[in-house]
Amino acid sequence: MNQQTKITTCGLCSTGCRLTITQTAPQQYKVSGDKNDPVTHGALCKKGLHAIDLMLHPARLTQPLKRIGARGAGQWQPISWQQAITETAEQFNQSQQRYGNNSLFFSYGYSKDFINTQLLRLANHCNSVNIHGPETVCWAPTKFGREYTLGYNPSNDVNQHTECIIFWGVNKHNTRFTDMPAINQAIDAGATTICIDPQRSYHAKQADYWLALTPGSDLALALAMLKIVIDSNQYDHQFVSQYCLGFTELSEHLQAFSLTELANQCGVNLDLIKEITEHYITAKPAIIMSGNALDHNPDSLQVNRVIAMLMAISGNLEMTGGHSRPQGATLINGRWPYDENDVNHCDAKARANSVGTPAIPEYFRATSQGLTQAMLTAKPYPIKAGLIVGSNPLLSWPDSQQVKQAFEQLDFLAVSELFMTPTALMADIVFPAASFMEYQGISQGQDVDSLPRGNDSSWRSKS
Q: Topology of domain 65-138+334-432, per CATH?
């Protein structure tokens, strides 16, 4: 057969690297990066290089399954798509008729193009406000903490002008290799590097300073740095006077904290905290580069608010080589952010009734803890049926044993997945999902170009 080559976009993380897929023989493919990609220049991570292995994996689910044994026992009967869809719809209707509209929940994992919007629209059509995603531990505390404090969530403009980089709970080398050329450019130009991480990560090994703080003590460290800057009168007076509101109140609030106690809380020598703070505040421009680790603590919103304050009083906002303000709207509305028409299908008062929803108007989704407790206690109302798409709550929600007990209380659960995960084992109906190379869609990569995802049914036969 003649070789066929397609250019598409990797869907295994939000970077959106371009892929070149060459079919050399039936069911034989070669994956490489696209050298014309202005972000990756043809480089790929291991996940992207093995994307075909994911698509062709022999353990893939290939047809709908119906549970015929005890929940979790792994006894299944293959059924048609029509039967799976019909029975799922009937069970949803029964649950809502008996327990109310909000007894039905919808949960997604990492999004596939517009799957978030599609699931939200399905929840809207079913008149349930219990739509759930992973955002509480993936970007929401960072995004809202900084937007509430600064008015926007700043980006990192790392380049040869950057004089100091703080890697705070992030490992760009392992998780976002496309950021490394700019980081290395800054380091080669002489930037001081500071790594704040309990683990001795790649950045910790390479950094000028490594602070192995006690896990979960990020707020204590951030407050200590903020207090040192203000008490030593080293903040950017011009920026603060022109652009900051509440600085006097912040200064007064910090007087209640003891630097010694804050240092003890985070398990880091106070002299070391003072030294790295001195490097950060005297460098212009400087960047605080954080990761998902700062979304995983009970106080993550406040951690990110304090870090945003550090960015502001140091005068590193909207500065070349510092933090920049995102420009323009996203090219593809409906994934991030959601389409406002979909969100406003239910008014704010109704959205506030989703279980576990935090008191942040912009965050209208249910939380995993709220759903688990509602399944177990029927408070504030019972959750009795649901659809989970591309997510594995038995491994990713807090307290796996409690989540298992909660799912055992459900009358009905449908799961859409690539593989038979522990969560799929708990389902009544399992739908086989498509990998990112088996459906059509639109993706926006880091270079803000939009590339269609190719779909050729001859590439993989599905029963």
A: Rossmann fold (3.40.50)
pLDDT tens digits along 418-443: 999 999 999 999 999 999 888 887 77
How far, CA to CA in Å, does 152 sit from each of 89, 145, 205, 242?
A: 41, 9, 32, 17
CA–CA separation, 37 vs 365, rounded Å? Answer: 35
Cβ neighbors of 452 (< 8 A, separation 6 or more) are 8, 440, 441, 442
Grade residue 259 by pLDDT with cuts at 50, 70 and 90. very high
Alpha carbon 73 to its chain centroid, in Å, reads: 32
pTM of the model: 0.89
pLDDT at 444: 67
| Strand order, beta sheet including 429-432 | 76-78, 65-67, 429-432, 412-417, 385-389, 104-108, 131-132
The encoded tokens of residue 121 equal 């629209």
List of E strands, 259-329: 286-290, 323-324
CATH for the 4-60+438-459 domain, from 3.90.1300.10, 3.60.140.10, 3.30.2270.10, 3.30.200.210: 3.30.200.210
Burial of 239 per CB tally in 10 Å (0-12, 13-18, 19+): middle
CA distance 289 to 307: 10
Amino acid at 21: I
12 vs 38: CA distance, rounded Å: 19
Average pLDDT, the chain: 90
Closest CA to 429 of 411, 409, 415, 410: 415
